[in-house]
Amino acid sequence: MNKVDFENRVISVHDNLALRDDGSVIAMYEVPASIISSMDVEGKIKFKKRTEAVFASLAPNLSFDIGMLPVPINLEERFGALLEDCADDTYDMALYFLEKTNEDLYGSIGQLINYKFFMTIPLKSFEVSGDIKQMLKDAWGRFKEKAVAVVRQTLEFEMNWYEAYDKANRDLELNLSLIQGRKITKKETGFYQRVDYLRGLNYNRDEEIASIESSVQNIDDTVIEPLSNGVIGLKNSYGKSLVKALPIANMPNVVNNIHLVEHAQKLPFPIELHWKFHFSKMKGAFSLASKGERASDRIKENQIEAYENGSNQKGSLATARIILDEMTDGVDNRELFVNYLATFVVAGQSMREVNYYKKIIQSDMKDIGVQVVSGMSDQLYFFYKNRFIETIGRKRQILYSSYETFISL
Fold it and tell me: Contact, 30 vs 181, CB < 8 A?
């Protein structure tokens, strides 16, 4: 990767759309978590079918992201709303109890959080003129700040770039309505591009939003330092933090109902979980079918070798053969498959704290057959690759699955 890839690539934001420096556009939606009773079998089946339909509809877009973020709960704001309904003669007592409740909660469990889920989907690129392309290229050169300002003004006020995506965005909104997807606002779009650079740091949300509104160049206004002990150091005007990405290296052979997200949310500390999907090619030398054929040849060779040597690998090779045959059947039946990168992200104030989080995650995930690794030498890659604006690129820790199997997680 070159240096440009390490910097903010957003040059303009409009509603839930973000324009990248290469002329491509992503749309961002919030998708609420669905709570279905464990006894409601029919409700679970219906929800799964709706989710399958939504994900299948994204195949023409080639890729999409899902991010689970821990969002701080502002109790003072919520308590303030409650106080508005208090009568004058009970106001002082209500204020006392609410302040005491707020103090006790923070003292016992710390910052309260609510997990939110976001989906990011790339929309089809439009043809940017040669002059604009050159301006985009120059924007990341020597006169970055001024050039980006010129490009942004040209795109927003002369080309109105977002108008070309109105229909695609409305169609996407209709599809995501099946799972109650909501177009986020312009302020939210800018802010959630920014939160990647605020992990573990103290900050004022209103200040951050105002800063981004003044210039999208402020999205990455944080000092970023890759450290030798396998973490990323972040620094802003309020302090410092350490960030570590923990990629999922292997999933169990059978993933039905392992409830990965629920396990993650039950951990005793805030955690992010990012999924980046790309629909697999079904034809060509690099298609899933071709990879399956090559894997089949390797398994066959290994089976023969294991049989001749009396190796105890025969059982695992037989399991691999069954899984490969199921995948081949799925390809023959034109089922959709996805390549994906799955990563946990934690932040702390010290290496001791970060390592504690890492051990808890690895132990908890191991109990359900999920292998989580440290990714020591790839932290910078994972930091930037897990931004909402990015898609899967270099094949590091890439896993494969049918999209129906993934939904069962």
Answer: yes
